[in-house]
Amino acid sequence: MTSVAIGIAGGTSSGKTSFAKEIANRMGPDKVVVLSQDAYYVDPSPLPLEERAKINYDHPDAYETELLVEHLDALKAGKAVSRLAYDYVEHVRVVTGDNVEPRPVILVEGIMVLVDARLRDRFDVKLFIDTDADIRILRRLARDVQDRGRTIESVTNQYLESVRPMHLDFTEPSKRYADLIVPRGARNEVALDFVTVRLAELTSD
């Protein structure tokens, strides 16, 4: 089976995951598999929790891109791979014990998926979810406080010290590699319709 690989980039809390999930919902679970770049953070588990929390997770070096490329290549070749996840509270990679099965469409979402040429070269379609910074920081603040047990102060400090600078240095410039820039993310019905129809065409054989 030959799969179509789609890269979905954008800043933190821009709506990448929601956009990918909506595409998957429209096409059906037998057609689409979604990989999150966050699951491929370099595993810092040998370090104490205090040290793990200090890592700059918004820099390209925070990701084990070689492993993501390996998994993407395997899925495109019709082979299953181990499903990975990431524990944002403990800052460790989790091997779930499940497999990711190959599907006609592979969606890879993450803030840095268009930064590295090794990934870009493997994507048949490249998208960038373009959401205003004020909306993104409010979404991130709510998510990290409610879902990850963070304090408002820690989220704010991280945003100012690493998230925003890394966005400006790496994520925002990667927009130029996108085939399609999508404002409003999963709220953009026109973009969702366009992408879904195009993917159906690419996988119709």
Q: In brief, what are we looking at here?
A:
By secondary structure, the protein is an alpha/beta fold. The chain is built from seven helices and seven strands. The protein has helices spanning 16-27, 49-52, 65-76, 117-120, 133-147, 152-171, 189-202; strands at 4-10, 32-36, 81-87, 92-100, 105-109, 125-130, 180-183.
Summarize the structure in words.
There is one protein chain. The chain is α/β, with parallel strands linked by helices and 205 residues long. It has a single domain (4-199), classed as Rossmann fold (3-Layer(aba) Sandwich), CATH 3.40.50.300. The chain has seven helices and seven strands, in the order βαβααβββαβααβα. The chain has helices at 16-27, 49-52, 65-76, 117-120, 133-147, 152-171, 189-202; strands at residues 4-10, 32-36, 81-87, 92-100, 105-109, 125-130, 180-183. Helix 5 (133-147) crosses helix 6. The longest helix is centred in the last third of the chain and has 20 residues, at 152-171. The mean pLDDT is 93.
- Number of DSSP helices? 7
Uncertain segments are none
Report the major sheet.
5 strands, parallel
Shape: globular
Q: What is the CATH class?
A: Alpha Beta
Mean pLDDT: 93
Keywords:
alpha/beta; 205 residues; two-stranded antiparallel ribbon; Rossmann fold; 7 helices; globular; five-stranded parallel beta sheet
List the SSEs and their pairings.
Layout: E1 4-10, H1 16-27, E2 32-36, H2 49-52, H3 65-76, E3 81-87, E4 92-100, E5 105-109, H4 117-120, E6 125-130, H5 133-147, H6 152-171, E7 180-183, H7 189-202
Parallel strand pairs: 1-5, 1-6, 2-5, 6-7
Antiparallel strand pairs: 3-4
